[in-house]
C-alpha cells in the first residue's frame, strides 16, 4: 500500500492551496501532517480520498489514480461534521456499513460500547465530544489499508482526546495500515508518530523521521516544527 | 444491507419530514376547497382547488430535489462513497418519484370524489372509464413534466458545483447561459417545417381542460379534450437520459467538497 503525490498543486480560484507537493506514504507507518490552520493539510487528505481533484500533478493509490471509488480503500475522518442529523447513532453506523464492503459491524459495536455511545440516541442531540467519538467509530470500523484523520482532536476536551488515542492504539493494525493524521495540535499525537511532515501555506517545508529527530537532533516534533517554521518565516 | 438499499433508506429518512409537511399542506388545501364549496353552496368551487394543487405538483419534484441536493452539499458524506454518480442520483429520483406518485394518487382520489359524488350535479357527467383514462394520462404527464424539470435542475446543480474554482457570478452566468442557449436551439429546431410536420404526425387525445360555466345561478364544470403529440415525449425522455448521464459524470469527476 502506498499513496503517492507527484508534483501536486491545487488551486481554489486564484488561491493556491497546495504547491508542487511530492510525498509518498507507505503502509505500516504513522504520518503526521503538521501545520497551522489553512496550510493545506485538509486539502491534501481530500486529494488522497478522491473528494477533490488536483489542478496539476497526480495522486495515486497503489499505482492507480485516486478517484471517488478510491474511498473503498481509504477510511477518512473529516474535520467537519459529516452526519445526517435525523439519523440515530445506530442508523449512522448501518448506513456506513451499507456503503462500504469493508465495514466491520462487530468492530463498530465494540467501539460504540467502549466509547459509551448510545446507539438509540439521535445524532442531532449528541454533544460535540460524542460526535467526535461517532466519527471515530465510523472510521476505525473499516478494515481499509489507509486511514486518514483530519483534525481528530478539534474542539474536544482532554477526556475525549485520550479516548481517541486509546482507540487508535487498540484498533489500528500498525503492521498493515497506513495512518495519516493532519493536525495543528502536535503534542497530542507526538507519541504516535513515525514520521512528521511540516506544511506551511501549501508547501512541504520539512519531513523527518520522529526517531531521528529525537535521537540525533534531540528535538521533539513540536520543537522541530517551530524551528523550521521560524526558518521559513525568516527565509 | 446492499448499497442501493442503504442509499434509498437514507434518502427516505432525510426527506420524510419534508414529505409529511407537504402532504399535510395539500390535505388542508383540499379540505379547505370542500369546506368553502359547502359554505358557498357551490360544489364547483372544488375545481379551482384541484387545478391549482395539481399545477403546484409540476414543481414538487424539482423543489424536493433542490432541497435534498442542498442538504447533501452541507456535508461531505454523500460524495464520500465508492458508489457511482448515477446510483447517488437515481436513489434521489426513486424516492421523489414514490412521493410524487402518492401525492398524485391522493389528487386523483380527490378528483374522483368531487366529480362522481360531491359535485356530481354540477360536473359534466363522464363515464368512469373515461375518467380513468384521463387520470392515467394526466398523471403520467404531470410526472413527466415534473421529472423533466428535475433532470434539468440536477444537471444544472452539478454544473454549478463543478465550477467551484470560478467566481459565483460567473458560475450563475454559465448556468443561466446553458438554459438560454438550449432554449434558442430548441426554438430554432421547432421553427423548421419538416420538424413541425414530424411532431404532429402521431397524437393521442386526452381530457386536458375543465371550464367553469355559470347558468341559472349555478356554476357547472365542462370538460374539453386536446391532442398531445407523441414524438416530443420520446425526444424529452431521451434528453432526460442524456442530462442524467451528464450530471452523474460531473458528480463523479468534477463536483468537489
From TrEMBL, chain A:
Keywords for this protein: ATP-binding, Nucleotide-binding
Top-rank taxon, per record: Bacteria
Keyword ATP-binding in annotation: yes
Keyword Metal-binding: no
ABC transporter domain ranges (all copies): 3-226
One MF term in the entry's GO annotations: ATP binding
Pfam families assigned to the protein according to its UniProt record, in alphabetical order: ABC_tran
The name this protein goes by in its record: ABC transporter ATP-binding protein
Organism: Mesobacillus maritimus
TrEMBL record, chain B:
Ranges that cross the membrane: 20-41, 47-69, 90-118, 138-160, 172-192, 233-251
Alphabetically ordered keywords of this record: Membrane, Transmembrane, Transmembrane helix
Top-rank taxon, per record: Bacteria
Protein known as: Copper ABC transporter permease
Organism, as annotated: Mesobacillus maritimus
Lineage: Bacteria, Bacillati, Bacillota, Bacilli, Bacillales
Amino acid at each position: 500500500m502506498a499513496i503517492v503525490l507527484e508534483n501536486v498543486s491545487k488551486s481554489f480560484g486564484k488561491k493556491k492551496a497546495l504547491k508542487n507537493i511530492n510525498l509518498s506514504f507507505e503502509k505500516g507507518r504513522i504520518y503526521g501532517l503538521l501545520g497551522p490552520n489553512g496550510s493545506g493539510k485538509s486539502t491534501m487528505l481530500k486529494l488522497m480520498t478522491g473528494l477533490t481533484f488536483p489542478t496539476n500533478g497526480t495522486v495515486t493509490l497503489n499505482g492507480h489514480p485516486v478517484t471517488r471509488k478510491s474511498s473503498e480503500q481509504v477510511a477518512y475522518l473529516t474535520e467537519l461534521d459529516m452526519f445526517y442529523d435525523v439519523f440515530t447513532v445506530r442508523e449512522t453506523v448501518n448506513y456506513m456499513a451499507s456503503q462500504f464492503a469493508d465495514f466491520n459491524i462487530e468492530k463498530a459495536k465494540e467501539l460504540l460500547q467502549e466509547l459509551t455511545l448510545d446507539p438509540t440516541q439521535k445524532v442531532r442531540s449528541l454533544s460535540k465530544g460524542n460526535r467526535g467519538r461517532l466519527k471515530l467509530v465510523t472510521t476505525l470500523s473499516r478494515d481499509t489499508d489507509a486511514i486518514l484523520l483530519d483534525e481528530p482532536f478539534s474542539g474536544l476536551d482532554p477526556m475525549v482526546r485520550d479516548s481517541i488515542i486509546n482507540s487508535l492504539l487498540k484498533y489500528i493494525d500498525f503492521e498493515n495500515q497506513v495512518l495519516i493524521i493532519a493536525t495543528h495540535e502536535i503534542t497530542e499525537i507526538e507519541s504516535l508518530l513515525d514520521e512528521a511532515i511540516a506544511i506551511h501555506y501549501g508547501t512541504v517545508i520539512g519531513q523527518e523521521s520522529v526517531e531521528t529527530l529525537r535521537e540525533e537532533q534531540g528535538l521533539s516534533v513540536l520543537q522541530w516544527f517551530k524551528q523550521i517554521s521560524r526558518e521559513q518565516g525568516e527565509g | 444491507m446492499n448499497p442501493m438499499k442503504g442509499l434509498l433508506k437514507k434518502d427516505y429518512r432525510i426527506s420524510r419530514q419534508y414529505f409529511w409537511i407537504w402532504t399535510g399542506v395539500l390535505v388542508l388545501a383540499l379540505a379547505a376547497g370542500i369546506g368553502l364549496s359547502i359554505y358557498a353552496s357551490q360544489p364547483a368551487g372544488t375545481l379551482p382547488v384541484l387545478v391549482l394543487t395539481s399545477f403546484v405538483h409540476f414543481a414538487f419534484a424539482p423543489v424536493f430535489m433542490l432541497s435534498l441536493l442542498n442538504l447533501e452539499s452541507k456535508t461531505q458524506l454523500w460524495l464520500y462513497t465508492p458508489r457511482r454518480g448515477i446510483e447517488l442520483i437515481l436513489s434521489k429520483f426513486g424516492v421523489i418519484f414514490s412521493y410524487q406518485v402518492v401525492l398524485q394518487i391522493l389528487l386523483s382520489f380527490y378528483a374522483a370524489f368531487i366529480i362522481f359524488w360531491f359535485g356530481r350535479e354540477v360536473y359534466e357527467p363522464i363515464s368512469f372509464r373515461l375518467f380513468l383514462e384521463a387520470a392515467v394520462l394526466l398523471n403520467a404527464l404531470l410526472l413527466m413534466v415534473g421529472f423533466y424539470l428535475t433532470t434539468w435542475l440536477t444537471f444544472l446543480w452539478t454544473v454549478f458545483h463543478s465550477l467551484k474554482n470560478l467566481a459565483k457570478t460567473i458560475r450563475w452566468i454559465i448556468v443561466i447561459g446553458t438554459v438560454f442557449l438550449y432554449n434558442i436551439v430548441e426554438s430554432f429546431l421547432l421553427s423548421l417545417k419538416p420538424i413541425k410536420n414530424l411532431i404532429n404526425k402521431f397524437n393521442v387525445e386526452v381530457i386536458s381542460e375543465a371550464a367553469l360555466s355559470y347558468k341559472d345561478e349555478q356554476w357547472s364544470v365542462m370538460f374539453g379534450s386536446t391532442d398531445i403529440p407523441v414524438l416530443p415525449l420520446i425526444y424529452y425522455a431521451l434528453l432526460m437520459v442524456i442530462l442524467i448521464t451528464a450530471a452523474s459524470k460531473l458528480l463523479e469527476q468534477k463536483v468537489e467538497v
